[in-house]
């Protein structure tokens, strides 16, 4: 996996600017999904539904979001990461068992994964950038 911000994210106000842009992008992509209210890169992702909603927003035929429940964390996280890997070629940087050990995911880990997912979607031509 590549390291650092994706090339087209550089120059958007440094690390804080990239983080704010990605958080905004996640909110916009998941705005209409039930049980998803992305406010940060930690507790907002705990149930796995934010990951599922984000992936589903690009691959709506990959799974039925309506069948998911917030309490089924393992299922949600596994589904999101497997779908992102299969359809977006996004490496599974997060381990489901590690995430389940904590009530709230580590913000740096979630941020890194979301950045990699974004990078993967750009590479697939699914996210348009100012340079693309």
Task: Give a structural overview.
This protein has 132 residues and is mainly alpha-helical. The protein has a single domain, classed as Actin-binding Protein, T-fimbrin, domain 1 (Orthogonal Bundle), CATH 1.10.418.10. Helices cover 50% and strands 0% of the residues. The protein is built from five helices and no strands. Helix 2 packs parallel to helix 3. The two termini are 21 Å apart.
Describe the largest sheet: none
| Total discrete domains | 1
Determine the mean pLDDT. Answer: 90
The tally of helices reads 5
End-to-end span in angstroms?
21 Å
Radius of gyration: 14 Å
What is CATH's topology name? Actin-binding Protein, T-fimbrin, domain 1
Q: Percentage of helical residues?
A: 40-55%
Number of strands: 0
Report the portion of residues in β strands: under 5%
Pfam families: CH
Domain Calponin-homology (CH): 16-122
Organism: Crypturellus undulatus
Family: Belongs to the smoothelin family.
Task: Describe what is shown at a glance.
This protein is mainly α.
List keywords for this structure.
132 residues; mainly alpha; Actin-binding Protein, T-fimbrin, domain 1; 50% helix; globular
Q: How are the SSEs ordered, and which strands pair?
A:
Elements: H1 14-30, H2 49-58, H3 73-88, H4 96-101, H5 107-123
Helix pairs in contact: 2-3
